Amino acid sequence: MEFCTSFSSLGIAFYYCLGIVAGSASPKPTSIALTFAESFSDCALFSLSAAFSLAGAATLEQDPREVTVQEGKMVTLQCRMSGDSMRYYTMSWYRQGPTGSQEWIYKEDGTYGEGFKDRFKIKELKLKNSFTLQILAAKQGDAATYYCRARITLEPLCSRVNQKPTYGEDRSPCISS
Fold first, then answer.
1. What is the pLDDT of residues 20-34, one digit of tens each?
2. pLDDT tens per residue, range 139-148
3. Residue 176 domain-assigned?
4. CATH of the domain at 90
5. How many structural domains comprise the chain?
6. Residue ranges making up the domain that contains 124
7. Which of 45, 77, 99, 153 has its CA 20 to 30 A from that of 146?
8. Whole-angstrom Cα distance, residue 170 to residue 158?
9. Higher model confidence: residue 128 or residue 140?
């Protein structure tokens, strides 16, 4: 196994992860440090650290906080929620490249963005509050800011509200179709 030990160039940038919740006008960002470097042996080094919070008590954290991967190797980014159940949220992954363009990797409806299905895999374990992104063979073009997005869903929220009405008829704010 070859390890990256000498580097010809190094770029460091700070990015933000955002958790978006319906009705929240301003998500709370926390800085991510993503480092991409290339060595003389053409291997890639990625360092990623992240933690961000949603409005309210729910918090999203990415683990591990730092990842080092050689080009062509697999890397796993795990997003975990604490303070609420992930089953009340729709989850997605997207990334923002160095030019600022955003690319959807995995959308809430279960579809992958163009060009991502072959090398990127998603594993949702909502009962364990875990949402994982695997890059099966990292490439230099994968150097980007990766965002785990949580969006609260109205239907499960309404189900929680309607579970135990406190009076005779159901007067919840949920819209029925």
1. 222 333 333 333 333
2. 888 888 888 8
3. no
4. 2.60.40.10
5. 1
6. 7-158
7. 153
8. 11
9. 128
